[in-house]
């Protein structure tokens, strides 16, 4: 346990940097999902919207936590590292929730794409019958 704490303390700056980068990437991906959904004018998939919303909330929660820890690290390198090491279990809990939300969103997106492709195929088939 002490070794894990020391490891968390030592790696705190890198851990926060990597988390911040991952969160920025995920936030960009979510904006792209939302843009794509708005461009297709398909508001029929409530499940996908709920999953996107949940994932956005998880990202915001972790961003707030990481932001507070980065501020502490900027003010005092030692205090910031200690804070990050003490918050490691909370960070891990947030990351687990984030992973669950990402999995749900990806499954919902897959179902959404499958439904969209199925609808397009059926409408193409119907058009070919009327020609």
Quaternary structure of the protein: single chain
Distance between the termini: 72 Å
Q: What is the number of helical segments per DSSP (H or I, 4+ residues)?
A: 5
What is the global morphology? Answer: elongated
Low-pLDDT segments: none
Number of domains: 1
The proportion of strand residues reads under 5%
Structural class: mainly alpha
**Percent range for helical residues?**
over 70%
Largest sheet: none
Mean pLDDT: 84
Order of helices and strands: HHHHH
Total strands: 0
Over the alpha carbons, how many angstroms does the gyration radius reach?
A: 21 Å
Outline the fold blueprint.
Blueprint: H1 2-10, H2 12-39, H3 46-75, H4 77-86, H5 88-130
Q: Can you put this structure into words, describing what you see?
A:
- By secondary structure, this protein is an all-alpha fold.
- The protein has one domain (2-130).
- Helices cover 92% and strands 0% of the residues.
- The chain has 5 helices and no strands.
- It has helices at residues 2-10, 12-39, 46-75, 77-86, 88-130.
- It is elongated.
- The relative contact order is 0.14.
- The model has no long low-confidence stretch (mean pLDDT 84).
